[in-house]
Amino acid sequence: KKFVYSFNEGSKDMKDLLGGKGANLAEMTKIGLPVPFGFTVTTEACNRYYDEGKKIGDDIVASIFEKLEELENTTGKKFGDVENPLLVSVRSGAKISMPGMMDTILNLGLNDQTVEGLAALTENPRFAYDSYRRFIQMFGDVVMEIAKTKFDAIFDAKKEEHGYEFDVDLTTEDLKEIIVGYKALVKEEMGRDFPQEPKDQLMEAIMAVFRSWNNDRAILYRQLNEIPDSIGTAVNVQSMVFGNMGETSGTGVAFTRSPVNGEKAIFGEFLVNAQGEDVVAGIRTPQPIAEMAQAFPEVYTEFTRIAELLEKHYTDMQDMEFTVERNKLFMLQTRNGKRTAPAAVKIAVDMQSEGLIDKETAVMRIEPAQIDQLLHPMFDAEELKEAEKLTKGLPASPGAATGQIYFNASDAETAVANGAKAILVRLETSPEDLAGMVAAEGILTARGGMTSHAAVVARGMGKCCVSGCAEIKVDEEAKELTIGEYVFKEGDYISLDGTAGDVLKGQIKTVPPELSGDFAEIMSWADEIRTLKIRTNADNPRDAKQAVEFGAEGIGLCRTEHMFFEEERIPAVRRMILADSEEERREALKFLLPYQKGDFKGIYEAMGDRPVTIRLLDPPLHEFLPHTDEEIKALSEQIGVPYEKLAKKTQELHEFNPMLGHRGCRLAVTYPEIAEMQAEAIIMAAIEVRKEQGLDIIPEIMIPLVGMRKELADVKATVVKTVEAVLEREGVKFDYLIGTMIEIPRAALTADEIAEEAEFFSFGTNDLTQMTFGFSRDDTGKIIKEYREKGIFDDDPFQSIDQVGVGKLVKMAVELGKQTRPSIKLGICGEHGGDPKSIEFCNAVGLQYVSCSPFRVPIARLAAAQAAI
Ligand code: PEP
Ligand code: MG
């Protein structure tokens, strides 16, 4: 088996084996671009490293050295050779890119001898010693795990000693002294000398990269992005080129189009006389790429030619790293660029009209979960006008954020856990800040460019970020942010406009976004492609209207219990519950009837002629009663029911396991008059709206929590009797449907019988998941978290459907239901209806619609289209 590939042996289709970076380096080599030669140790070698107890097998070591020799022959340089030393970079690269999460080592191969060789060869001793000190520092940090700050202390002390302002002020002699200090530090920390043998350096570095696959931030990043732990990382060993060889050298990162707004123009940054990490690490704030055209006009022309070629070759926006060594351009990486949702939409639509991709590909290019960003608020224009603009930084990731300032990731996390909205303010973010960035509303940094980690990671998360804000002073120790004359302390409010890069004073109201233009275009393509219908879960006209604006084609679930909680009705609801006789109960229900009718009219009107499924009351009645003694006392005074009676009733209704208790159709079986009132309200509302608006409403009445045919038949009889009586009384006739939810495993198992009574099934996968696993919906969060950490669950089964188990029940119910009633309508209204992976599943098993909350409707439209492609 082959564990090591030279760059001329691979291609872009070998990402599983070579990782994204390795596969693309091979591809660029194949198409003749200037790529420094090297080789890739495969992801399989990484997995073997872990399988074999964190050791690299002898056969793999032998292959690495074989490829090293090939690299020496190709470059004409030799590892450890004083005359013409080969220096390499050692970089991670998984199949799915994880920017900045794993480790990199540059300048490997330098030692006390080769550094002199490099100095002589380049006639640039300062450069050679600077490279050596960088190498020791990186190797010490990554391989030996010595705190970076200890190296920084030695470095900064030297600068201070001479009163230098910039790193470049350090002389060769200074650098030599720093190296002596670094080596002493290594000896002290490790009890051994810094390794002088390049082959030892190489093997240690490769293993360190493998190890970094399992560092905390990489693990967290994989969890957040649902990247499996099992894929491992490859390691790329590439001969070094130097961007820090003086004013004719430099390094940069660029995108073929703007990853922020999608504009078609090279977008990026570069630094003269610097090495790669300086750009992405956000330590020096780089210059915009346009200035490269002035510094290196010919190289820039060549670069734009290559950028265009790469974009056409991959037919997608590319994110490229390059280095210029003494006026010669080298490509170090290309990959499909990460982008914000607005950029993703614009690029997809533009590339389709440029003829680069077709509509299907354009639709596939947008991450459904990502368009969430487009649906979220921007600042209220009026309030924004009034707001005081404090300063401007780089618009690193769009959107609006308002919240309280916190100066480190863990403070921000704690504050958010306690209900605050946080803005994370940092000098510069490092990958260790990831958890704090997740928690915060927005991120503000003093340093770092548009391609710094903070910017890249924030864009990926759709989180508002303003970076490289040079005019702010951040004192992380004192927890103070100074902007001009203002000093902000922890907990003070600021606002960020990630689209403009503005930092604003105080809190600013936010408003919903625009949904036209390119977004509307791509959604219309999605609508052409998909076959699943998209409905929404809504129980008031406001949500229903919002959902229609987002493209909902009906209501799949209207939960009627929410209406019972409204202030003027809850006393009647309680009277109904406390009633001693059916008669008393009917009295209370009579009071509720007009309210319910009004609710349903409002919803029908909001939905026009789109179908509406209304579900009969589901939750256990005790939810409508007070629980604590004080609450019971207060209520007894308020409604004039004796305390004892109220307390006794509460006691009676108490359930140990209410989710498995007196709820769903069981309520209607025991108190048919509740179902009667609801059925009457549903039909009367339809009659009136039909008359008043001329809408052809066909009510869909849904009976929840059914497990047996007879149960459904019982409640159905009540509903049919009521509906028919109302229709006759009102002298009208129209169709209506009666169906059920499939949310109890027994219902799925006996769906053929249930379908005899039901005209439609709507899968209530919240309850179905709960009951299939025997995991309480409400109390299992902690267990699920631990199960995910242990790898027992890949996903939370309450968010993404468990296709193996719960999915099997769904599939079975679909088949059994169709056997009995081929025309049966099938949909899903559990939370899974808005989850892209689950939507793919629903499409595959032959459901006709998914129903989800209004803000997930566009996500569902897109996911349904992708499922159909
Ligand atoms: C379900 O159980 O999936 C469902 C939609 O109903 P509810 O969440 O109201 O129980
Ligand atoms: Mg349910």
- What is the CATH first-level class name of the largest domain? Alpha Beta
Query: Could you tell me how far the N terminus lies from the C terminus, measured between alpha carbons in angstroms?
Result: 36 Å
- CATH architecture level-2 label of the largest domain: Alpha-Beta Barrel
Walk across the major sheet and give the strand order: 12-22-21-14-15-16-17-13
Distinct ligands:
phosphoenolpyruvate, magnesium ion
Q: Measured on Cα atoms, how large is the radius of gyration?
A: 32 Å
The helix/strand class is alpha/beta
Q: Name the shape in a single word.
A: elongated
- Rounded mean pLDDT is 91
EC number: 2.7.9.1
Binding site for substrate: 559, 615, 743, 764-767
Domain PEP-utilising enzyme C-terminal: 516-867
Binding site for Mg(2+): 743, 767
Task: Put the structure in a nutshell.
47% of the residues lie in helices and 17% in strands.
